[in-house]
Amino acid sequence: MNWGAISFDWNQARAFLATAEEGSLSAAARALGLTQPTLGRQISALEQQLGVVLFERSGRGLAVTPTGQGLLEHVKAMATAANGLSLAASGQSKTIEGKVCISASDVAAAYMLPEVLAELRDIAPGIEIDIVATNSVSDLRQREADIALRHVRPEQPDLIARLVRNMTARLYAAPSYLSRHGHPASLQDLASATFVSFGDRDRLMRELGSQGIVLSRASLCYNTESGLVAWQLVRDGLCIGIMADDVAARYSDVVPVFPDMDPIPFPLWLVTHRELHTSRKFRIVFDFLAEKFSVARSPAKV
């Protein structure tokens, strides 16, 4: 070990990581429970120590420089190691007990949470997990949940949010649907296709329209509040639907409608309330979920 090369403060590295993930000094300061000037000084000290520029202004936020991007993965690894050390210091979290309520969409609750929670159970068997599977946004400030998986960043300044991963989605259909109706050769061919939406039809039309996929309400022949029901309709060959690639990869009975088209990007945010700073059980679950969801998984097909 070259001890002479390790000359910077972990707090400075943590400030760099938080600012990179939050996108601004003010948001990172809130997440870490620091003042913005203190956080700014830590980043400046790290830049001076390393002899590099880590951020550049981008609109009203900050963008990580190419040099900073090259260092970011190393700092993330440090954060993971620091979290592991913290768990070990607390008796490997086996003495931590109590209930933690996690809110997620029905699709995320069914397809993303189970395997992660199985691992959490191994390291923190005393924590009891309540799962709220809902496609509405739980009010964390009213304690409808302690931690939430969301695809939109919360606007409330008293909530802590971490962007854990940028996910992708595509239009999918069953081969039986495509054999009956024909495989669309272009986006224009979708005008006569049958679609399913879940939740707000108009919102789905706007989001797909922003990706160049223009649908009419007449195309949305099926609608449900449940993402699980919508996905089953797609798998049964009734219609075309949109689904996260991570979920669709589990199934061999669906195919992407436009496999060569760029996927539709969407974020995965992990959100909690301020009690994260004072509750050991919330901190353990939040950090564990953030670590596990930051990496895409490759599940076996069914």
Automatic annotation (TrEMBL):
- What's the family? Belongs to the LysR transcriptional regulatory family.
Q: Record's Pfam families?
A: HTH_1, LysR_substrate
| Statement: the UniProt record of this protein carries the keyword Transcription regulation | yes
What GO biological process terms are annotated to this protein in UniProt? DNA-templated transcription
The protein's superkingdom reads: Bacteria
Task: Give residue ranges for domain HTH lysR-type.
Answer: 8-65
Instruction: Give the signal peptide range.
Output: none
- GO MF terms held by the record: DNA-binding transcription factor activity; sequence-specific DNA binding
Q: Which PANTHER family match?
A: HTH-TYPE TRANSCRIPTIONAL REGULATOR (PTHR30537), TRANSCRIPTIONAL REGULATORY PROTEIN (PTHR30537:SF3)
Q: Protein name, please?
A: LysR family transcriptional regulator
